[in-house]
Amino acid sequence: MSDRSELDRRRAQLSQAKRDLLAEWLTGRARHRSIPRRRDDGPAPLSFAQERLWFLEQLLPGTRAYWLPTALTLSGPLEPEPLRRALAEVVRRHEVLRTRFPAPGGRAAQVVDPPWEPELADTPDESPFDLAAGRVVRAHLTRSGQDEHLLTVTTHHIVGDAWSQRVLVRELAALYEAYADDAPTPLPEPPIQYADFAVWQRDQLAGPGMAGQLEHWRAALSGVPTLELPADRPRPATPTQAGATHRHTLSPSLLGGLQDLASATGTTLYMVVLAALATLLRGRTGETDIAVGTPVAGRGSPDVEGLIGFFANTVVLRVDLSGGPTARELLGRVRTTALAAFEHAEVPFARVVEELRLPRELTRTPLFQVQLVVQDAPPEPVALRGGLVFDVATLDTGGAQVDLSFAFSRGVCRIDYSTDLFDPDTVSGMAEELVDLLAAMVRAPDRVLPGSTAPRPSAPTRVEPRARPPYRAPVTELEQSIASVWAHVLGVDRVGLDETFFELGGHSVRLIQAHSALRAATGRAVEVVDLFAHPTVAALAAHLDKGDRSSQRVTKSRQVAAARLAALSRVAGTRGGAGEH
Fold first, then answer.
1. What is the Cα–Cα distance from 99 to 134, expressed in whole angstroms?
2. Which domains does the chain have, with CATH numbers?
């Protein structure tokens, strides 16, 4: 095997996050991505990812949708005091774990509190997180047998992601071992803190390079069709986010063949699986233009590799299956698309959605309904001196934030699916079909894949911005007050009766600001959900004029909010968007 082939083989075995970092080092870009410490220790802005989650928490205060539990089985003799000290040291080291999020004037900020020690409780704390008050870390230790314990550390997603969970486990193990031996901490201080990243991120995205980044996504995703995947039930008006999981194991021979195919075609395992998944979706929908979402780690700078924080983002890859390509040809298209997408992966997904000015739907994710993750293998158990073993326990959340989420790790295909839409047998059939497609790619990469030439539907649904309605001037005092507030918050000259807040450029932070300003300007008890349920000046004014605060209206508003939350949670790049490829 040539040196180049061996390098390609080893590169194909890396996760996408690690390939991103390697590419940056090889091209010299990483040398220019050092993140400076911020100038003062006062309040800092939220990152874009945090800003979206903070908004969702305001929409439905106390929701558990964004709790991030890390479960560890501790096997062997355990000393609680070194464990308590280790957890306290992790909280001291990572400022984001002792950050609160007050929102004076409707715009949240990060305020770092002095170090504090989380309690190792013997019963779980089920009370809602209060982001304004802080204390976003909870620990629960239970004994499950002789020398067997379960440690659950739960944070709010606003301060962590899947990569962060690995950092937490690694640091807890190292610190526990040191403290059990009465030794000092073996860990160096982090070079920066999460608030430094948040300031730097906003500076970067406000710079001249942002226009080119956004132009890429405008060109790449303009006119992307809505994927109408046949389901067992109609899509409900109010999604429940209820879900289930199906697992399918790939044979070692197939997994080896896929890795060899990736090496031979200059691609990666992720790209091979994406090509097969797009072909599967093509066969079931007849569409040749397939959009798939994928989470990225969002840690392009070496300074943040060892940090706990919410860095994850979501990118959308648009796969072109027109013309019935062979597997090799399709892999070439996927490679080009994927490399371009990851090159522009720093643009927050919510910012891309806002830039495209797409219609807002309560029932589905913007831009994509299917997600793909090719993950690193889960951490191996850590055996410490004294016989204690730390091992990560797998938790199934029982929820589905997108219609279908395919995750590959250690030769296992895991499909999390919406039970609103799909039955177990349907998903099991998809898994088998996907494995068959992968096997066909390995056997005959120069043949057209089965299903890639399925009939095209006569009228695919494409997502286009709604035409701006003709201007109608506000008439009543209430309409004029609402229009004035919206114009001020949105930075536009005027707002007509029929223009929606979101299509004029409204997003989560502006919505909270508008909500606060509307209460002051109108003297009415405006709720955040009212702006979702009645997004035009005319509709909101008519709603407020009715003054109906009955339990029926409140219940309906909560249903609308829940549906909106289901849709927006997928924009936030949440738990599933925190992993690596």
1. 6
2. 44-195 (3.30.559.10), 477-547 (1.10.1200.10)
